[in-house]
Amino acid sequence: MYYNSDILHVHKYCFPTTFDHGHSHRIIGVSSLGIRRGNTHVHCYRGITTVDNGHVHYYKGETGPAIHLPSGGHIHCYKGITTIEDRHRHAYEGTDYPSCP
């Protein structure tokens, strides 16, 4: 069942990367507008991590499908791996809720 027929919305996201090579970064951004996938939708996202340990990493991906909340609304899951910089990379995983009010 598709509750949110309006895909013209975006989501804020912010969560940490894994701790690798002695540090971690934060991933902060705003997704693209929704993209219909069957009876649900996803969002694309891309960006640059925070500067930590003197460098940044790039990331991009597509969220998982909408997960409907009992109280109304929905969230999406984000999961991926950053680019390699300074001979290492970081994994990340999070949702656009509740980490970004």
TrEMBL record:
InterPro entries: YmaF. Pfam families: YmaF. It comes from Desulfosporosinus meridiei (strain ATCC BAA-275 / DSM 13257 / KCTC 12902 / NCIMB 13706 / S10). This is YmaF family.
